[in-house]
Amino acid sequence: MKEYYQIEDLPIELKNELKDSASFFDNFEGKSLDEQQRIACILNDCDLEIIAGAGTGKTHTLLAKAEYLIEKKNISPDDILFLSFSKSCVEELIEKLNYNVPTSTIHSFGLSLINEYRDKEVYDGRGFKKIFEEYLKTASDKQIDDITNYCENNLNSHDMIKLIELDREIEKFNHLISKSNISSRIKSFIDLFKGKGYVASDFKKIKSKCKHDFETNNGGYYTNKNYLNNMAFIQIVEPVFRFYEGYLFKNHLIDFNDMINKAIDLVENKGIFNNFKYIFVDEYQDISYKNFQFIKTLKQACNAHLVVVGDDWQSIYGFRDSDITLFNDFCDYFPNANRVFIEKTYRNPQELIDIAGNFIMKNESQFKKSLKSDKSIEKPVKIIFDRDSDSIYNLIYNLSKDNERVFILGRYNGDIDKFIFDTGLVKKSKGSYKQITNDHESIKNVEYRTIHKAKGLEADYVVLINVFNRDWGFPNKFYPPYFVNLIQDWDYDKKLEEERRLFYVAITRAKKGVYIFTEDYNQSEYIDELIDENNLELIYSDDFNRFKEFDSVEEEDVKANLIDLSDFDNSEGIEIKANQKDFGNKLLKSRKYDEAEDFYKKLITNMYFLNDYYPYRKLVEVYYKKRDNLNVINTVEEFFKSGRFCNESQVLWFESKYKKACKYSGYSFSNFDACLDYFNEHGLKNKDKQNEPVPIAARIQSGGGKVKIISQEAHNIKSEYHELSLKYKSARSSKKALYFFEQLWDRKEFTKNLTAYKRLCSLYYDTQQYEKVIEVATEYFNSDARKTKSSPAWFNKKIAEASKKLDKSPVNESSNPIKTTNLSNDELLFKYADLYEKGLLTKYEFDRKKKELLFNDD
């Protein structure tokens, strides 16, 4: 394998060929090909991998190479095959090709090969929900129960509350199926499963591997809960898969995976193919293993030269089973191949190229490229700390008014509802997005797309929205489901690398500039990284205008903000506390991290912050920005051991910073669980005392230069109600949630509505206090809640269930609360884990039961 970067790398005969063909390359379709594009066109006696950076004109190069073969090498157009992965790419190639070259998507080409031999129609994957509904009609009671339990365990708190309020069982089940998105998950799994060549008999191996990985903790993040969740999913999907395969057979259908398998078989064993001399594959970085097998089989059968083009920096479809290693290791799979780099970009200014290139090369698995551009624009990337819809509207209007094309890009489809619709800029109509007017002003040339849908396209400006630091932020921090990893070699590190490539794709769509909208102090780690390593323009909302100039922060200012507050009355104290927060923000924005570190350390012992999480959070933020991972870890641990109160979302924030610091420093994440256990035991006890050391209304909101006082009592009620609505997440056990809910129940400010009665019943039921369940349910029937909104069926059912439990519970029942009759080992393990999660089994007891079941051959 040889790599070519410049003409000097070529042998003398190819240099002479370039000279002889100069007139062709100097004016192809009105453009002159650059040096590297010309090299790609004349390397025709080998397999060839063309690595073309964003905006380098890869499509133009492919067209030139094809026409060069036809006009200069006397290759017939019928001897060249163009393959791509998307219809839009195929349509573009057909439109621009001057010759009738066979051009198709891979699936369409595979279908054309089997047409003569197939006796079945191809099922395109649409309508799987109907197949799943057919399965549900024939499923056993146990299979329905398995689906119900799995869906309930994967609902968010809002959907779970909605479920509780539904009376009819059929309504509940339909709600579960809809909100858990179970049919879509199963369809995605089946596509991956078949794409890897698995068959129904392989489920046994997958279950065995799942148990082995759980016992050995292979993967690191494999907890009791997600093990059982994954096993439950596999238990569900196996019979659905068998039904799906039977449905296809019964209805004389084949899916895309079957079709590709059939095409491979026909090419290998029946010689069904055209004798192509050259096979071109576009966007090769997105190839899956199944498509790779098909292309390799076709190439070998035809004895054709394979020409692939792509960019490893833009490989963003791992979730669809694309495998970047098939691109990166191309020359290992095809030993006689050569490699060409195309590095001159015609889209982005050099300043944007440098920012994007440095960003993407943080990944370990990327080819090093030196992209160059003749364009130059000062500070093409701007970070905007603002979510105000008017500000965003004004920006987009100003960008588009001179007929400039503007892309509004989001990481998720859900960003449409949360962001774009709020501004009134666009609306959805029959699957596409159309402009609408806002204040009777027309906004033209503005398109909203997800980043995935924008790949391969370009605009004058890119507006990238919702770049926040959260699980469903950017990057997406959720671990890929383990059951996906069982069949697809795609771990968490690979997922994060793909997230970085996705961000790279977003910002390199721009020809002139990029505007990234984020939220101050909740910005993505990508934002911090870009700011730290580049000279970017930062734009703040009106709330932060007073912090735009930072050079005047001196040590005297720091000292002045640490004066003793004990002599001030309440109103002065509130204002000073707000000012201290503002001053700390000022230090952070000015990047005076050492001063900020000293400032927040002193705030920890300040009387106005004695039981407040705030100074610890800001100190963690300081260390995070300084890349001081060990101090991030130490500060988080110190906070949880301090016994100070914070709510569930704040716990998740600390956890995310702790997890990243552990990853970058090699520190064990297991210590975090111990810290959290200590916090749940001690920190929660301080919840009602969270503001006692402060002699004023301790909760304030500061914004726009104004201080808003929130009454202590109202804050406690609000925060406790929110905390208890997330009972299993924040309190980590039903017992602890019940402890606080009983306190709320007795307060006059607390509203005893239908949901509250149901929640208390559920908590008593979960903690096996069945007499209390009956007592509360009976109380409900005589309460005002019954008069305003009635749900007698739910409470009658709870009374019946509790009574049944009381009748079946012997007085001297052993400490094991599970009846083991007719339960499989997997079901028993699931139930033991549920008891452990609720605090009804000790860790020792659960580990003992787990080992017994895992090593018991049933």
How would you characterize this protein structure?
It is a single chain. With 858 residues, the chain is an alpha/beta fold. The protein folds into five domains: 3-120 and 258-344, Rossmann fold; 128-253, no CATH class; 360-540, 3-Layer(aba) Sandwich (Rossmann fold); 552-713, Serine Threonine Protein Phosphatase 5, Tetratricopeptide repeat, CATH 1.25.40; 751-854, no CATH class. It is built from 40 helices and 19 strands. Strands 1-9-2-8-7-3-4 form a seven-stranded parallel sheet. The chain has a six-stranded parallel sheet with strand order 14-11-15-16-10-17. Strands 5-6 form a two-stranded parallel sheet. Strand 3 (80-84), helix 5 and strand 4 (103-105) form a beta-alpha-beta unit. It is globular and about 95 Å long. It starts with a strand and ends with a helix. The model is unreliable at 156-169, 427-442, 542-574, 684-732 and 808-821 (pLDDT under 50). It catalyses: Couples ATP hydrolysis with the unwinding of duplex DNA by translocating in the 3'-5' direction; ATP + H2O = ADP + phosphate + H(+).
